[in-house]
Design brief:
The structure is a single chain. The chain has 321 residues and is of the alpha/beta class. Helices cover 43% and strands 19% of the residues. The strands form two sheets. The chain has a six-stranded mixed beta sheet. It has a five-stranded mixed beta sheet with strand order 7-6-8-5-9. Strand 1, helix 2 and strand 2 form a beta-alpha-beta unit. The radius of gyration is 23 Å and the shape is globular.
Length: 321
Amino acid sequence: MIMRRTFTLLAAATVAAALAVPAAAEDYPSERLTYTIAFGPGGGNDRMSRTVVDVLRQYDLYGNDIVVENREGGSGAVGFSYVSRKAGDPYRLTSTSGNFIGTPLVADTDWTYADFTPIGLLASDAMLLVVRSDSDFSDVDTFVDAANAGRVTIAGSGSAGPERVTAALFAKAAGIEFEYVPIGSGGELVTALTSGSVDAVVANPSEVAGQLEAGTLTALAFSDSARSTNNPDVPTFKELGYDFSFSLPRGVVMPNDLDPAVQEWWIATLKKVVETSEWQEYLVKNGMSGNPIWGDEFASYLEETSEQYRATLVEIGAITD
C-alpha cells in the first residue's frame, strides 16, 4: 500500500515537472509573438524592428501571429523596462539601439543590458569622421597634425551621445585636444561643416551619405572594428593606428530566464533574416554595417560597449563615477 502510494506520488511529481518545463524546444513557437519597440513610430529602432518582422512574415519564419507594439518614453526606458519585466516569457522580443546602452548610464532605470537574453547583433551603428573635401585634411594624420599645431573643432549631435564618445576616444588614441561642438540634428551637422563653422564632424553614415556621394564631404575613418559594408573604401581608425573602436548595437534581445533552446531557435531564425535581400536593402538604405554576431559573443559585446561608453562619459564629465 505504501509502495503504491509512493508510485502515485512519483507519477504526480513527474507530471508536475513536465508541466513546469517552458514551452520551448519541440513545439516552439506555438503562441503569438509580441515584438515591443521601445521608441515611437518612424525612428531608427522602429524601422529596424518592423523590417525584421516583415521578413519573418514574408518568409514564414515564425509559425504564428506577430503583434508589433510601440512603448515609447524616457529614451527607451519605458519599453525596455516593460520587456525586462517579462522574465521567462519566450514570446517577447525587442530591438536594441544606442539608448539600450546609454540610457541606463545617464538615468535611473530598473534595467540594464544584463537584464536581457542576447540573441544577435544584426547591424552596427558606427560613426564616420568627416571633413569638407576642399579642406586641408587629406587623411586622419593630417587632421592630427593640425590639432597638434593649433585649435581644431569637431561637431556631433548632442552633448553626451555616441558622436561625442567617438570623438573623445579618437582624441585619446591620437593624443590630441579638440573643441567639441554639440549640434542638434544631422542636417544642422552637415550645414555646420559645409559652412566652415567646424573643422570636422562625427556622424552616422546615413546623415552624410548624400554629401559623400556628391563629393562635397570626405570620410576619413570609421569607428567600427571592421570596415562598413556601405563605405568599404573608408578605413577604420584601428587600421590607421588609432587603437579604438566604437559602435552601438542594432540587435535583438529577449527577457531573461528563458529555456536555452528558445535562444538557439531565435539565433538560427535571425541568421536566415540577415541573409535576405530585404535585410541587405535595409542596411544600405540606413547606412549601417552588417557584421552580425550571436549569443554569448553578443553578450560580451554589450558588456564591453557599456563599459567603454560609461568610462568615456565619466572622463568627459557627463556623469560621475
